[in-house]
Each structure stands twice: as C-alpha cells, then as structure tokens.
Write a structure and sequence with these properties.
The structure is a homodimer.
Chain A (H helix, E strand, L loop, with lengths): L1 H9 L6 H10 L8 H11 L5 H13 L4 E3 L7 E3 L6 E5 L5 E4 L11 H6 E14 H10 L1
Parallel strand pairs in A: 3-5
Antiparallel strand pairs in A: 1-2, 3-4
Bound molecules: manganese (II) ion (2 copies) and zinc ion (ZN) (2 copies).
One zinc ion binds next to helix 6 of chain B.
The first copy, chain A, binds a DNA duplex through helix 4.
DNA sequence: ATTTAAATTAGAATAATTCTAATCTAGTAA
DNA sequence: TTACTAGATTAGAATTATTCTAATTTAAAT
C-alpha cells in the first residue's frame, strides 16, 4: 500500500483523494470487484466521483500490473487486486468467486501440434463449482 | 447435423430456414464465432435475418448443450459449436483462438480448503500464447 | 502565490445484448 | 388444399457496460 503510493509519486502521477480511496479499497481486497462495485464504494466518501475516474484508475493500475482483469463474467469485467498469478473457482449458482493459489503449470503441458502453432506465455484456470451456501439452498428446496 | 435436425423436430421446435442456415454454419465449424460473425454470414442468404433470431437460436442451442459460450473476450461473447469439453489457447496479439483437446482433469486437484467451500463440477483452461503469424510480424518489426 | 500538466467531472457516444409487440410461417389436421 | 395456431421472425427500441469528450479543477512544482 505505502509502496504503491510511493511508486505513484515516483512515476510522476498525481495522487488524488479519489485515487487514494480506490487504492485503499483495493489494497488487500480478496473480492473480485467490478467497476461498479468500486464506484459505489468510493461514492460513499466522494459523492461526485465519476465512472471515468474509476475506469481510468483501473486502466493505469492494470498497465502497472497492480490489478488484473479476470475473464469469468461476460456481463461485466471483474478486477483482481492480487496480481500474483493464481486461478479462480466460480459458483455456478451465485457467481461467488474464490481464489485458487496452486501452481499447476508443470501439469499443463500443451500437445506438440499446439506448441508448433502458438508460443505459450501463460494460462489461467476457471474452476466451476457450487458453494456451501448454494448447496444448502438446493437441499432446502428438495 | 442430420441428428440435430431430427432432435429439433422431435422436441417440437420448428425448423425454419434461418435456423437451418445457422445450424449449417455451426456444424463442424472449428472457429469460435461471435453472434455478429454468425449474423453476417446468415445475412448473405437471408438478408432480412435479425440479431434476435441469431441470439434466440444460440440460446436454444446452449440450453440443449449443442453449443457453449466461451469466456475469453470481455467485449463480445464467443460461441463454440463443439460441445465436447476442451480448452482453448488465445493469441494475445490477434486474439486467434485454438482448441486444446487434452484432458488435464486428473492433474487439476483442488486444495482441500477449497473443496470444503465448493463442490467442484468442472473446469476450463485458457492458455495464452503468440501465434505463428504474430511471431513473424513481431520479428519483422525488429 | 502562480503555473500547468494531469486528473476529474457530467454527460454524450458507442457497442453488445435483450426486449417488445406486430407480423409471419412451419407443421398439423380438417 | 385450406385453415389454424403456437412458435418463430422481424425492426427497432431499450438496456447496460464501457469509452470518449470537452470543460473545469487540482496536485505539486516553482
Ligand atoms: Mn483472484
Ligand atoms: Mn473450442
Ligand atoms: Zn453460490
Ligand atoms: Zn496472433
């Protein structure tokens, strides 16, 4: 967090209250918020904040590698404030997202004919499942 | 293909020329078209076809498990006419999509604390890479 | 205090997808 | 063949996420 602020200043970016609020919200946040989630949170303290600011800040942070977009929902983008490579598990019922910090890279060898066509640079796994809460809900219905 | 048409009729769905054209376009298609790709193709033969028809048909086919949505592009949905479970590799430069028919499920064991929270039902891997064409382009630039 | 490049803002623009309500038609049965 | 009708198609409007724009404000350097 502090380092992030320092990095900011070093690189000649202005540290505005809105940005600071966004940084604070994201720092250590293990949820996977959408732009709208962030917007609504920041709006509590800065009622005039605009979506443009949220999107601009997210784009900057993305370029700096501090947050990552995750590709799980076609409706809206989700952002991951944890830039360390990891995977995700999504509840197919309520869309709850969990982190999976497990390195599968050794096991994910590509078939030879694919490696001829693509030079691999990384991978990301989406696990699907049903979360505790939703399992209970389903049981109750029966 | 024929089976698909039969299945259609059996289930009491009408087989319209537009739907048939969409089915034909998708049959054996190893690309991963968007609704717009399909729309433009069908429009060649049926100039009055509407987006609603394309989306409706895709939704039906999805419900029947004949096509799958793939989650790789936040801009637009891509559809996969091959419903057999498989993974994908995406060129980070031109977004070309390739199929990866390799079963990694044995290797993808989830950590215990995740299995406590989620009952797993499946997984999908996005590999990222740089395709032949894009590798060449990059070299040329240097 | 002044300056100014960068950031913020409200609101417009864009683009993918879904919805709506009127019209049409595939398939059935007289 | 003809008539019927549930379901399909259509044009265009609505919705929604994201990006763009141009005017205004501000952080931070001087
Ligand atoms: Mn995560
Ligand atoms: Mn595929
Ligand atoms: Zn759930
Ligand atoms: Zn490429």
């Amino acid at each position: 967090m502090k380092e992030l602020i320092e990095k900011y200043k070093e690189r000649g970016f202005k540290l505005t209250p809105q940005r600071l609020a966004i940084l604070k919200f994201l720092d250590g946040n293990t949820s996977h918020p959408t732009a709208d989630d962030i917007y609504r949170q920041i709006k509590k303290d800065y009622p005039t904040v605009s979506f443009a600011t949220v999107y601009n800040t997210l784009q900057m942070l993305q370029k700096k590698g501090e947050v990552a977009e995750i590709t799980i929902d076609h409706q809206k983008k989700h952002y991951d404030p944890n830039p360390k490579p990891h995977h995700h598990i999504i509840c197919i019922s309520c869309n709850k997202i969990g982190d999976v910090f497990e390195d599968y890279s050794e096991a994910l060898r590509l078939p030879y004919h694919i490696e001829e066509e693509f030079k691999p640079v990384g991978s990301h796994i989406n696990f699907y499942g049903i979360c505790r809460g939703c399992q209970k809900k389903h049981k109750r219905r029966n």
